[in-house]
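Subject: complex prediction, re-run

Hi both,

The earlier run crashed halfway through, so I resubmitted it with identical inputs.
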Amino acid sequence: MRRWFAPGRVNIIGEHTDYNDGFVLPVALSLGVVCAAGPRADGLVRVSSAQRPGEVVEIGLDDLVAHRDRVPGWARYPLGVVHEFVRRGLPVGGVSLDLDGNVPIGAGLSSSAALCCAVTLALRDLHAPELGERAMIEMAAAAENWYAGVPTGLLDQSASMLCTAGHALFLDMRAVTASTELDHRVAEQIPFDPATHGLALLVADTGHPHDLADGAYARRRAQCESAAAALGVAALRDAGLGDLARLTEETLRRRATHVVTENARVVAVADRLRAAADPRSIGPLLTASHDSLRDDFEVSAPALDLAVSAAVDAGAYGARLIGGGFGGSVLALVDSTAVERTSARIIDRFAVAGLAAPRVFTVEPAAGARRLE
Ligand code: GLA
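This time it finished cleanly. Structure:
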């Protein structure tokens, strides 16, 4: 069996912009999922996970749809990828997939995208070498959306597939969606190495799982589409601040305000990093993103707000919730020398509030999906 790896991601800025044809700026984590894969002669798909000892799933290629509801939730993601190959008429055969991951689950760090991307890359190399990155991103996302039933955008899979070490990835999601191939004009790698500036990216996993499957994510997406329709634009990416007063329905106006201002913040952060400015200067934009996600998009949660304010009180240059929201993790930009102090402050504040201790760790912009050997 050969092995493939795909990472989770942290989005520096650009939340809920991906499905509005907007801008995102993720980095890949060194945490991810390893998929050991090899063809099988018996035509079955066999899936196992080091995190689910004893729960091996074996299923025929023709039974993937009919038996979907009988397989455990974790196995639906890799099987969803296999199904995506079958559905597209790609020549996938029997295959064994042994999975092992270390991205915290439900932490908003894209553990499921890492899983789906690792499996997609493995099946591409084994069965369909002609598939390009653009198609793989779409297939990994389709597998996840179909099985988990959440209409997410392409941010997480693009980050997992395309990020490179020492860089943030600037993506114009409209260009990604419209392209058949992803070259440097669509996927721009901007050098970003906080450590060389004496900085660290601190992640606090609040332990409050973010569950996007309860409909709140889908509702936000539908509200964005309604707002775009009311403004007469193809997507909120095409709206400007001056247009928003035309939205008479207050909820739609607030949702649109988040998307329009967030896109502007992503562009501003990308500009500063491109100009090799001191990354400390992006801090206020990160915190403004959090405020907007909390007040206008209404996807924050008390534990996320608490972690952000504790980090900022401890001297972080900026902090924000990352990913879809409702729970999960917070990102803070801090001096390398302040990592301990900031972590302690966040943990303290959780204790005072009677909440379980969050898991706090640092991350560095790492490499995207690849074959390991
Ligand atoms: C989740 C989704 C992404 C994106 C983010 C919010 O991570 O999977 O497509 O919409 O939420 O930015």
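The chain has ten helices and 13 strands.

- K.
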